[in-house]
Design goal:
The complex is a heterodimer of chains A (346) and B (505). Chain A is α+β, with helices and mostly antiparallel strands. Chain A contains eight helices and 20 strands. Helices cover 23% and strands 36% of the residues of chain A. The C terminus of chain B is likely disordered. The chains are: A alpha+beta (346), B mainly alpha (505).
Chain lengths: 346, 505
Amino acid sequence: MTSVEIKNLDVELGTRKVLDNLSFNIGAGQIAALLGPSGCGKTTLLRAIAGLIQPSAGTIRFDKQLVSLSSLVLPAHKRKIGYVPQEGALFPHLNVAENIAFGVDRTLLTKEQIKQVVKQMLSLTNLTGLENRMPNQLSGGQQTRVALARALAVKPAIILLDEPFSALDAQLRGELRADVIKLLRNQNTTAILVTHDREEALVSADLVALMRQGKIIQQGTPEQVYTAPLSATTAISTGDALVLTAKKLTDGRTDYIFNPIKEAAQIAEVGEVVIRPEEIKISPDLSFGKVSGKITKIDYYGHDAMIVVKVNDQLLQVRIPGPLDYTVGQEVGIDHQGPLRFFATT
Amino acid sequence: MVSTTAALVVALSLIPLLYLLIRAAQKPVNESIALLVRVKTLEVVGTTALLVLMVVLLTGFFGLVIAAGLHFLELPAKPWLVIPAVLPLAIPSYVFTYTWIAFAPGFSGFFAAVLILFLTTLPYVTLASLAGFARVDASQIEVARSLGLTYPKTFFKVVLPQIKTHLSGGLLLAGLYTMSDFGAVSLLNVDTLTVTIQNMYRASYDRTAAAVISLVLIVLSALFVFADENIRRKQQAGVAIKTTTIKSALIKRSSYVATTSALIGVYAVLAIVIPVYVLLSRFFSNTVEISWQLLLQASFSTITVALLGALIALLLSIPLGILLTERSNRFSQFSSRLILIAHALPGVVVGLALVSFGSKLGPIYQSTFLLAFAYSLLFLAKSIASMSASLRAVPTGAKEVAATLGLNRWLVLKNVVTPIAFPGIALGAVLVFLTAMKELPATLMLRPTGFETLATQIWSYAAINRFNEAAPYALILILIAAIPTFILSRPDKSDRNKTNAELVG
């Protein structure tokens, strides 16, 4: 179990600053997810941690050991990292067993011991029986498992997973993700998962770091980043969110679509409120809530449905659990029943 | 229809081989055996084999090191460094030889031939290795590094096993070139199989004995082709995995950078600076009046006959290219193997066969067409490789979508396949043109009387040590050949380099 501490990290690729004064801590044995859109620097951060690129400033520590200090870096091959890139990057000229045994130190273990390690990894990743297959004879999911087994076989201090499930179909992705996370937790391995899938980040990690333009804009537990976003941007990063214009009044009340304040009042701040669709409730009873609207669209997903309600020319998304009792065109009463997150616009 | 035409092309390409077999069979068996096992023949075979071995080992090592440096290191002005590494492709071995003889009088013998053929063939291996490196997924290198491997270990355990086929392709070209070279070894007084065949043909017109010796050369060449094929077959199990190739960070280690830069620098001096310096100094110090008309005529003849050869090769490669792309059956595999064996035939052998064969064809004998046809047979494999690679690059989905949109087969070919495949096919034709322009032994045997190309003119002057007079022809040849060579290796088109290098390799 190893902790990771990153302080004021800068990485420049060519003339472009890809990571900008980035700081981030991961506790020993924790699984952290780096969540952000393409090009925000997630993979670059992962590669800097692995020692594959050289930061221009800042420090990276594994436990107490300084592995990167500006231009002084511990080379990748001395960091004891397990790296699982996109699509696994299996060595195509080696079979499954040889891929798994690839990084095992042959000077410390006998051939028999290496065989045992491979056997153990095959069993751990549900690949027993496939040891002699070549990578091009494996499915996408099996390739990812082999890549993970190869990374775990060296007993790494930290595992870095760079969108390992992105090439898989939705069902397989979910199953494999659950297996991998279970495996990492059982092994008590510190892991960093790069993803642009917000559900994947929330489901898998102990710690979620939201990245934008080379910086971490918020970090916390999945619940913290989902329920208490620091801005509308971070709210959208972690799930569906309605961003509605609002006014904070000097008496403490908030004037917004679900709480229209008709009488004259002094405005303290202008800004927006962020509401999750599941925090909005609707009812066929038009007296429910302070406003009413008309259903314009229903997307039914089985376990729940997303309903779009038009209120005063504004379209509001509402998530309701199944079964579905509403129809398009129906008038409904609507109310916001959740925390009020107000962010003043600057 | 395609299969029939392809079969016809295969039959045409086998004319030289069949003719030599028939011709050699005319010699009584005991005489043929006596010819083959005589001390002189064995010495010549030994010299040829040793020469090929040394050139292959040297090009293999240095080509790999230079290509690895060009691909993996952060070198100053990196995109442009590929030019000195590849440009010597424009200089034929006999020009290298004569410039070196002029530069260092007394330059002769076996090791001189090793040096010249090493300089000539190094770009084949460099380009083929570069193409191989470009196909290795950089993620695999990063994974290997993260698993504790140093750069050298990563290279040997991850990279090298994956580029075996590319390297083998480059070495095959270097080996076949060395085996079939006539100009350099002849000028340097090294008795190889090609020199012996040419001497037999010229001295006594004993075509039967020359045919028997040619068969030895063919067997040696075929061994090379089969060795390469064997490596490719073995490699097939470990390829074709779908990966996303990412750009890896370049290695900055100063010792690696210095070594690669020094190697490229030394190579540029030996293979470009010295030959060009000699040619320019000889050109400007020439006191004999240059016949500009002859020079112009030879340039025109060279371009015309090489263009015609490239065009014939292009036409002949269409049916086989289509067959290899669309149908993988026994016939297509068999045809592709036959073409490869035909490709291994040295110019001197094809020349010999077509001289004998052509003499029975009346007006075609001693015509520009027969010479161009010889070029097309010699370089058909290159043209087919580019044709099938370019056709394979056309996405099947695009053809199917076009068909569903109402286009018939002809329109799909015209509006979808041709626009996508044309650049690659054209570059293949350029490559055949470039190689044909420099061809010497077949040209010497098959050119019509009074028909001079730049190659034959250089040869005529250089063979009698009139280096000053050969210089303008050599300069023009290099200048013309440098243009397609530059196009084939343009550093600003790095993506295209992959394909081009594969064509070369």
